[in-house]
Amino acid sequence: MASQNTTEHAGYGLTEKRRAIAQAAHRLFGRDGFTRASVDTIAAEAEVSKRTVYNHYGSKEQLFLSVLQDSAAAVAKTQAEIIERYLGSITDLEADLIAFAHAWISPLIDHADHFALIRQINAEATHIPPAALEAWRIAGPQASEQALANQLQRIADRGLLDINDTERAATHLIHLATGEVTQRSFYGALPLDAGQIDTIVTSGVQAFLQLYRP
Q: N or C: which end of the chain has fewer CB within 10 A?
């Protein structure tokens, strides 16, 4: 029994160390970027040795890839829930799309650490391993837009929208209704006031409906 407890405790310790490394890396990559954040600094922030970081992740590149994938997947999960909550049952198409777009913006604040990473990616994309960029795109934006495309298809099947390419329509909705908020706020770093957001979202949804309403 003593041996079993010792083993379980050791395993728990390894899990906690890995979690501490991931959390520290998330903060520091978001603050300093991929290029400037060092494994030494991440190890110090996580209160583990540099060797422990390499034992868990192999390299700085693999650590960044893991953090970026996990972070993007968490945001995509939140956005999938938003899609279902606001577009799963349509009662007033324009009002529901406006409410959806407002909610779609909320991860800029609720997942602020993730969008700090995205700001750094935009700043130093040419210095980030292409595999990390592609993994982020697949786990995050692509997954979210595909989920939205699927929901728009269900709405179109009810005759409420006229769509030939649902993936393109999903891209249009995101960019028209929320893209300006994302860009002007620098991914949530400088939030806009509620009136500005409402004007952007409402006009964007109305433009989308001019394109896709039957």
A: N
